[in-house]
TrEMBL record:
Family from the record: Belongs to the FAD-binding monooxygenase family.
Named cofactor requirement(s): FAD
A Pfam cross-reference name: Pyr_redox_2
Lineage top rank: taxon: Eukaryota
Molecular function as annotated in GO: oxidoreductase activity
UniProt keyword terms in alphabetical order: FAD, Flavoprotein, NADP, Oxidoreductase
Annotated InterPro entries: FAD-binding_Monooxygenases, FAD/NAD-bd_sf, FAD/NAD-binding_dom
Membrane-crossing residue ranges in chain numbering: none
Entries under SUPFAM superfamilies matching the protein: FAD/NAD(P)-binding domain
Domain FAD/NAD(P)-binding, first and last residues per copy: 72-296
This protein's name: FAD/NAD(P)-binding domain-containing protein
């Protein structure tokens, strides 16, 4: 009774938020999903096969390292993070021959290699998203660049810096084990050859330094839906868009999806992928049934070609323009700039006042538990105007009132990655497009030729699964768990055991005591912003600076060095991160999703579990203050790093 009375006193919008979040809470949390790579069903596992690789061409390539060989740097991943690490090593003076990159796919690009669905563009301005534009002089064709252009640009980057023959494709690292006597990592790998890369072989190599750059969304998942594997029509996951089924080409952003003509298409999921892919599917499908658990917030996009005059005179004018532009966007997102500061990017992202709730802000330093209610109220006040306009936009575009209501999101803007489109909402005005809203429950089951939702059967010919990925917070941010690698450090200590017993334990989120010469990317105990490239730039620069300082490329002694943070330094860092954990209490009001680990992030049962979770909090002031702090730390002499020279 008391709880009901308290809820009745809430403002209508907050009450609505709570009611909608409650609909989506499930006791099984993340266990309601299965990762396709590890599914018990061979059909579901096959949905993540590499259908883009040219296996015949790859079989002819010479490997950059043979079994039992040695390399100075082994980088796991040839996506944007891995490429940036390798390039910055070369820029620091290391040789290309000192580097081996290991990549599961058949080409470079990471998320931009795997994701090729129609309509796909970056959602952050390409002038700050594409790395190293200033160094290469490359001019993106549009304000928001297509996936095809991004992938081709990353291929050019690899070739420009002489790294094309330093990559082992179709290869997966399975374990890392530190040899303290030799000061090397033994790296066990599985590599594929032949048709489909199905001829598997295992090999081990040695590396002085290992760098984990496997990305934040490497594992697509699907809900545990009865009957899914038994669907007899064509089926694929959007992370491996199958153009053999849909028609069209992965080399064309707006393909002619002739394979969908005359077909009833069931599309499951309405997250960021759907916002771009659904309008393209709707152009060709005879009937499109879109199954929704939670609607996305869809903001105005404003796509436009790059204007050469604007590029030369305003965007790319002056030394250091890209870094300045990245930081300007990040500071606007974190609300760390005085009102009236020029908005260089000037798009809807840059005007999301409350998105700092998941990025950090200097406006709320020293936040204590007693101040949390006032802090949340202030965030919601910042968000109210934007959220209201976003909801009004739906009713202004979607002509059917019932459909518009079901497309309306009810949660704070920061609870899911906001989306941007000038075509998605308009798609629901087409007569062949039907929204099947499940009121937060998701679909019930799949039969041989239909989807069952809300107790009703919907016959379909093709099933497209747009159901997302495992959360990047999986395993509490443990790099071993996130990358699916067994990592064994000094004295047989497993990284997973260290994380399980203590929570996140790093210095600056990039390396950890008892795991010398191992570096990784993280959000836990580090920082992030909406622009992933900015996050990678900060962390790669920091990692390469540490390596170069303690093991410079010009060192004539060619000595082995074991580099790691001291136990005391990383514990002090964990306490600093824990002291800012209250800032991220903002997610406590969120509807379940990957940010909250489907609600698991709020289900800590004891004080000890809460402290463990709090240790993994990001830097609470935002990424630009985080980078300034790192720069100061390096200038002051890399305090807290210990080495064992030989």
């Amino acid at each position: 009774m008391a709880a009901a009375a308290a809820m009745s006193q809430l403002p209508p919008e907050q009450l609505k938020f709570m009611q909608e979040a409650a609909k989506r809470q499930r006791p099984e949390g993340t266990k309601q999903f299965q990762e396709l790579h590890y599914s018990d069903s061979s059909r579901l596992r096959n949905l993540v096969d590499d259908i883009f690789a040219d296996h015949a061409a790859l079989d002819k390539r010479a490997l950059p390292i043979e079994a039992g060989g040695n390399t100075k740097f082994l980088i796991m991943g040839a996506g944007m993070g891995g490429i940036l690490n390798a390039i910055k090593l070369v820029q620091a003076g290391f040789k290309q021959d000192d580097i081996v990159m290991v990549e599961m796919g058949g080409g470079v690009g990471g998320t931009w290699y795997w994701n090729r669905y129609p309509g796909l563009h970056c959602d952050v301005e390409s002038y700050v998203y594409l790395p190293m534009l200033e160094e290469t002089g490359y001019v993106p064709s549009h304000k928001y660049t297509s996936a095809v252009e991004i992938r081709n640009y990353l291929v050019k980057l690899v070739e420009k810096f002489g790294l094309g023959d330093r990559i082992m494709y179709r290869t997966e690292v399975t374990s890392l084990q530190w040899d303290g006597g030799k000061k090397i990592w033994r790296v066990d790998m599985t590599t594929g050859r032949g048709n489909g890369g199905t001829e598997k072989a295992t090999l081990s190599v040695n590396a002085d330094f290992s760098i984990l750059a496997g990305g934040i969304f490497p594992h697509p998942h699907v809900p545990k839906i009865p009957g899914l594997a038994g669907f007899e029509g064509d089926m694929f996951h959007t992370s491996r868009w199958d153009y053999a089924i849909s028609g069209g080409s992965s080399e064309d952003t707006f393909s002619e999806l002739k394979g969908l003509e005359g077909k009833r298409v069931g599309y499951v999921g309405t997250g960021a992928t759907a916002i771009q892919a659904v309008p393209e599917v709707a152009k060709f499908a005879k009937e499109l049934l879109l199954f929704q658990r939670t609607p996305s917030q869809v903001n105005y996009r404003g796509q436009k070609p790059t204007d050469p005059k604007e590029w030369s005179e305003r965007i790319a004018a002056g030394l250091g323009w890209q870094k300045a532009r990245m930081e300007n966007l990040a500071q606007h997102l974190s609300r760390n700039l005085p009102e009236g500061t020029v908005n260089m990017v000037d798009d809807e992202w840059s005007r999301l006042q409350a998105y700092c709730a998941v990025l950090g802000s200097e406006r709320f330093t020293g936040l204590t538990p007693d101040k949390i209610p006032g802090y949340l109220s202030e965030l919601q006040a910042w968000d109210a105007n934007h959220n209201t306009k976003a909801r009004e936009r739906i009713s202004n575009i979607v002509t059917d009132k019932s459909t518009a209501e079901r497309l309306t999101p009810w949660y704070p803007t920061w609870c899911k990655r906001p989306t941007f489109s000038d075509t998605y909402l308009q798609t629901f005005n087409k007569p062949n497009v039907h929204l099947v809203d499940t009121d937060g429950k998701g679909i019930d089951a799949v039969t041989s030729h239909a989807i069952i939702a809300n107790g009703q059967e919907y016959p379909i010919d093709i099933l497209i699964l747009s159901t997302g990925y495992r959360s990047p917070a999986y395993g509490g941010g443990d790099p071993a768990a996130r990358n699916g690698i067994d990592i064994i450090g000094r004295n047989g200590l497993k990284m997973s055991e260290k994380w399980t017993s203590r929570g996140a334990t790093t210095l600056h989120g990039v390396f950890s005591h008892d795991f010398p010469n191992l570096f990784f990317f993280a959000i836990a105990q580090a920082s992030a912003t909406a622009n992933v490239n900015h996050t990678l730039e900060v962390q790669t620069s920091h990692i390469i600076s540490i390596i170069s300082h303690f093991s410079p490329p010009s060192d004539p002694r060619e000595r082995k060095v074991a580099i790691e943070p001291s136990a005391e330094a990383e514990e002090m860092w964990a306490m600093r991160c824990l002291s800012g954990a209250a800032f991220f209490s903002s997610v406590s009001v969120c509807t379940p999703g990957y940010i909250t680990m489907e609600g698991d992030a709020m289900n800590h049962k004891s004080q000890e579990e809460m402290i463990k979770a709090g240790r993994g909090s990001p830097w609470s002031a935002g990424i630009v203050p985080f980078e300034r702090m790192l720069e100061g730390w390096r200038a002051d002499g890399f305090d807290g790093v210990i080495t064992d020279d030989a």
